[in-house]
Specification:
eight-stranded antiparallel beta sheet; 40% helix; 5 helices; 325 residues; binds zinc ion; Glucose Permease (Domain IIA); alpha+beta; three-stranded antiparallel beta sheet; single chain
Length: 325
C-alpha cells in the first residue's frame, strides 16, 4: 500500500481528470486537527486512569504508609503505658524508698523535665504523619528523662543502704560471750561496791562471768587500737575503734589476746580468751562501750539472743551488787 495515493481533480475546462500535485502545506493543514484531537483524547484517558486507578508502586506505598501509621499508633499507646508505669515507680520511689532512707523526695518538675524546646521536633515536620511521629518522639524523650532520674535516685538509695550497712555492722551490738558460755552477769554498768577497794564507785562496764579460756568475740567491725597487758587494773585488754559515731569497745582481764594492734576485725571475730588478769577476783570479761573515750552503758547497744534474756539483763541492771571489776 502506498503511503500517499495519487489524487485527481476534474478540470471543467479541459473536461479531464488531472493529477493533483502533493503539497506538504495542505497535508499539514489536514493532519494537525487530527493530531491535536488525538493528543487531547489520549491525555483525557490518561488523566482518568490516574484519577480512578493507582499504579502498582502507588498501591505498595499506600499500603506501607497504612502499615507504618497503624504500628506507630500502637507503639504510641504502649509508650503511654510505660510512662504510667514509670509514674507509679516514681511515686513508690518518693514516698516509700526515699522516705524509708530519709532522702528528700524528687519534685515532679525534675522528674518530668523534657528535653529541649519544640525546635527539637521540627525535623519531623512536613509530612502527613508528622504529628504522629512527633508525639512518639516526645513520649520517648519523656520516658528516657524519667528513667534517668529514677536510675540516679536508685544509685543514691543504694549508697545510703551501703553506708547504713557499714554503720550497722560497725555498731557494737554483738554479745562478746556466747550465751551458752555465759554463766551469769556479775555486775552491770553503774555505781557498785568495789570488790577490792571496798567503796562505792562507778563500774564502767558489764562483768560477764565465764570460765577461763572462754572465747571472746568482737561486738562490731572495727580496728584494734589496744591489744596488750599494759592497762593497769584492766590486765590484758583489747580495745576496738568502731569508726562510727566515736564508738569503741573494750574487753578486759583476758587470759589470752588473739589479735594485734592495727588489725581490722569483723563482728563476731574471736579476739581473745576470758581470764582474770589485772585487778580481778575471778575469771570474767569486763566489757565496756565508749563514745569519744567516755564509757556508756553497753546495754544501749548490745543485742542478746532472746528477748527474755535481754529483759532479764535490763532488770538485773538496776541491782546494785558487788562488781568483779
Ligand atoms: Zn568490771
Amino acid at each position: 500500500m502506498k503511503l500517499f495515493r495519487k489524487k485527481y481533480k476534474f478540470n471543467r475546462e479541459s473536461l479531464q481528470y488531472e493529477e493533483v500535485k502533493f503539497s506538504f502545506k495542505r497535508f499539514l493543514a489536514r493532519m494537525i486537527p487530527y493530531t491535536i484531537s488525538s493528543v487531547i483524547f489520549g491525555a483525557v484517558i490518561m488523566f482518568l486512569y490516574i484519577v480512578v486507578f493507582e499504579s502498582p508502586e502507588e498501591k505498595i506505598l499506600r499500603s506501607e504508609n497504612e502499615y507504618l501509621e497503624k504500628n506507630f499508633k500502637e507503639m504510641s499507646r504502649r509508650l503511654e503505658q510505660s510512662d504510667s508505669l514509670l509514674n507509679e515507680m516514681a511515686k513508690r520511689d518518693n514516698y516509700i524508698y526515699r522516705s524509708l532512707f530519709e532522702q528528700d523526695t524528687i519534685p515532679c518538675t525534675i522528674r518530668n523535665a523534657g528535653t529541649g524546646g519544640s525546635d527539637v521536633y521540627s525535623k519531623y515536620d512536613g509530612y502527613e504523619t508528622s504529628d504522629l511521629v512527633k508525639s512518639v518522639a516526645k513520649k520517648l524523650d519523656r520516658i528516657e528523662s524519667k528513667m534517668n532520674v529514677q536510675s540516679m535516685s536508685y544509685v543514691t538509695i543504694l549508697d545510703e543502704i551501703k553506708h547504713r550497712e557499714k554503720i550497722s555492722s560497725s555498731l557494737p551490738v554483738f554479745q562478746p560471750i556466747r550465751p551458752g558460755d555465759l554463766t551469769s552477769i556479775g555486775s552491770y554498768f553503774g555505781y557498785r561496791m568495789h570488790p577490792v577497794l571496798h567503796f562505792l564507785r562507778m563500774h564502767t562496764g558489764i562483768d560477764m562471768n565465764a570460765a577461763t579460756g572462754t572465747p571472746v568475740y568482737a561486738a562490731g567491725d572495727g580496728v584494734v587500737v589496744t591489744a596488750d597487758g599494759n592497762n593497769h587494773g584492766y590486765g590484758n585488754m583489747v580495745e576496738i575503734d568502731h569508726k562510727v559515731d566515736g564508738l569503741s569497745s573494750r574487753y578486759a582481764h583476758l587470759s589470752k589476746i588473739l589479735v594485734k594492734k592495727g588489725q581490722y576485725v569483723k563482728r563476731g571475730e574471736l579476739i581473745g580468751k576470758v581470764g582474770s588478769t589485772g585487778m580481778s577476783t575471778g575469771p570474767h570479761l569486763h566489757y565496756e562501750v565508749l563514745i569519744d573515750g567516755k564509757q556508756v552503758n553497753p546495754l544501749r547497744y548490745m543485742i542478746t539472743p532472746t528477748a527474755d534474756e535481754y529483759k532479764a539483763m535490763i532488770e538485773a541492771a538496776n541491782y546494785t551488787g558487788v562488781s568483779f571489776d
